Amino acid sequence: MDKFRIQGGNPLEGTIQTSGSKNAALPAIAAALLTAEPVVLRGVPQVRDIATMLRLLEDIGATVERDGSRVRIQAANVVKPEAPYELVKTMRASSLVLGPLAARAGRARVSLPGGCAIGARPIDLHLTGLEHLGATVSQEHGYVCAEAPDGLRGGAIHFDRITVTGTEDLMMAAVLARGETTLVNAAREPEVTDLAALLNRMGAQVEGAGESTIRIRGVDRLHGAEHTIITDRIEAGTFAIAAAITGGRLAITGAPVEHLDALVAKLRQAGVRVEQEGDSTLVVEGGRTLRSVDMTTEEYPGFATDLQAQYMALMTQAEGIAIVTETIFENRFMHVPELVRMGANIRLDGRRALVAGPRQLSGAAVLASDLRASASLVLGALAARGETLIDRVYHIDRGYEKIEEKLAQAGARIERVAG
Ligand code: EPZ
User: Could you read off the pLDDT of 303-339 as tens digits, one per residue?
Assistant: First the structure.
């Protein structure tokens, strides 16, 4: 298993380019199942979760051609409308094929995801939603099966809680359903809006994406389309924090600036200088004394749970006590014991973490436990004195494209040690 060896202590300087958004590309790839014609996506990041999703589509019967960040998918036939356990267990987002397969093939069989490192994360809301669209849902042998042999029909779906992939899954199911569907209490994340834009390019009629009520008028068929995926707000946010935590100065280009308001506000309150240059460059400059600022994760447009771990690493370097509250997932603090091993002063109290700083971190051997937790360890290591060895970086490879190359280009002393 690969490791990262990081020598901390030097400020990052220079320019880092943002990649395409993993969490926008995943549903866009699933959407290609809705038509027999080719769907061409640009700006698809080269990360492991994307490779897994493309493998899943091939398994289902699609042909996939990949040339760097451009991917062409054609699902002329759906051969096997199924997401097997082997793939779902490595990536929960595989459940995004449920809606498209039920809509296109009238049948979908998807392994239940089970527990994952950041919590139980059920898909019950996807399933009750499909039932509202007329599917019959059953469960056996660890799989759920959604069947709608005569096609889905529009319906009113009210989400009990906001779910990002649930909203995406049901939006994809509804575009080919007979009649009109409304999704109430829908997720407003930019990735949902990007998916709606792709679906509309394919001939769908989706209105209101980005708001909490989405209206979808079903159509008989969709056609092929070309679409450029939005850039990754979580990756850009991670680099912004890297500049702040090392007291450096980074220009983050291609950043989806309009999707980063919540983070930028917190960084400014903490004493970090953040300026926008042009449409899509964020210049982030640390170097001044950091102040502790409390933060609570929320659905978009609130502070993203996917940046909580990285923000906590930053707060270890801030003066005072910051209370970080995680409201989206019940178990997303696995980075805490590892940051503590590096010298951080963090106390856990249920869904809250109390981070007291500043503490000089020192390099240590640590273990990456999930994607964003790994990113926070990289950030901690960049700020630490001495050498940090991060084990199990396959977690980071799931969602960050060439992170070590990008950071090294800005002066980080980071290398991948093949294991
Ligand atoms: C998406 O996961 C993202 N993944 C996650 O990013 C992100 O952390 C999360 O949204 C929240 O923003 C992708 O987009 C591929 P949810 P998702 O359904 O859709 C509960 C990363 O690091 N829930 O919005 O799976 C659930 O347990 C990843 O890139 C139900 O109870 O998250 C959680 O507590 C990790 N029943 C809450 O809702 C359901 O049927 C929000 O989850 C569905 C969800």
Answer: 999 999 999 999 999 999 999 999 999 889 999 999 9
Q: Could you tell me the pLDDT band of residue 119, with boundaries at 50, 70 and 90?
A: low
Please, where are the H alpha helices in 120-260? 124-132, 164-174, 190-201, 233-245
Q: Is 351 near ligand 1, meaning CB less than 6 Å away?
A: no
| Domains of the chain in sequence order | 3-19+231-417 (3.65.10.10), 22-228 (3.65.10.10)
State how far Cα 283 lies from the chain centre: 23
pLDDT digits (tens, 9 = 90+) for 46-58: 999 999 999 999 9
pLDDT tens for residues 378-398?
A: 999 999 999 999 999 999 999
**Residue 26 CA, closest ligand 1 atom number:** 15
Percent of the chain with pLDDT over 70: 98
- Candidates 355, 352, 293; CA nearest to 326 is 352
Residue corresponding to tokens 């267990």: 89
Please work out whether the CB of residue 121 comes within 6 Å of at least one atom of ligand 1: yes
69 CB under 6 A from ligand 1? Answer: no
Residue 387 alpha carbon to ligand 1 centre in Å = 34
Neighbours of 64 (CB within 10 A): 16
Which residues touch 222 (CB under 8 Å, ≥6 apart)?
A: 34, 35, 37, 175, 176, 199, 202, 203, 204
Question: What is the 95 CA–ligand 1 centroid distance (Å)?
Answer: 11
Measured from the CB, is residue 305 less than 6 Å from ligand 1?
yes
Name the residue of 164, 171, 370 to mutate for ligand 1: max ligand atoms within 8 A of Cβ: 164
Task: Ligand 1, residue 96: give the atom nearest the CA.
Answer: 15
Per the DSSP assignment, residues forming a β-bridge with 302 are none
Query: Which run of H or E residues covers position 325?
Result: strand 320-325
Give the C-alpha separation, 102 to 92, whole Å.
18
